[in-house]
Amino acid sequence: MGITLIICGVALSFCTYLLLRWWVTHRHRIRRRENLKRTIAAEVDELVRRIETVAKKAEEVQDAGTNFLQSSKYLTTLLTVLIKKFDGAVCLTEGDFLDCGVDDYVTVYYQEENNSLILQLNTILPLMSDVKDDEPTFH
């Protein structure tokens, strides 16, 4: 009976050791998962913040690109450049305004090669364009 008691004590100690080791390992895994979740959440938050920043900048650029002709400051500057180019004076008569019909319009192009703005009268752009993708002129 004495040896049986010793074997039971050793077995109980060994089982206690195994249970304690499992518990410590399990707690360690849980902490690693929680740290990983926190890290992933922080990275996702950072990505969302960056995406929002890029989207905001893209929206500002798009607004600047689409609304520049509605800006009185830009249009005033454009008129100043045109008048200066034509020796400082442009005379517009009532007849000039009456000569403009519904079919008369101006197309605006931007050319990246030399940073030029091209204004062209009565330009009809084809529906299908054979222009290469690397053409530096934007319509």
Please give the number of β-strands. Answer: 3
Structural class: mainly alpha
Shape: rod-shaped
What value does the Rg take, in angstroms?
A: 38 Å
pLDDT averaged residue by residue = 81
How far apart the termini lie comes to: 100 Å
The total domain count is: 2
Biggest sheet strand order reads: 2-1-3
Give the number of helices. 3
Helix content: 55-70%
Q: Could you explain how this protein is built, in words?
A:
This protein is mainly α and 139 residues long. It has 2 domains: 1-68; 101-127 and 135-139, no CATH class. The chain contains 3 helices and 3 strands. It has helices spanning 2-67, 72-85, 94-99, and strands spanning 106-111, 116-121, 137-138. The radius of gyration is 38 Å and the shape is rod-shaped.
In short:
The chain contains three helices and three strands. With about 140 residues, the chain is mainly alpha-helical. It has a three-stranded antiparallel beta sheet with strand order 2-1-3, with no helix packed on it.
List the helices and strands and how they pair.
Layout: H1 2-67, H2 72-85, H3 94-99, E1 106-111, E2 116-121, E3 137-138
Antiparallel strand pairs: 1-2, 1-3
Supply the key terms.
139 residues, mainly alpha, three-stranded antiparallel beta sheet, 10% strand
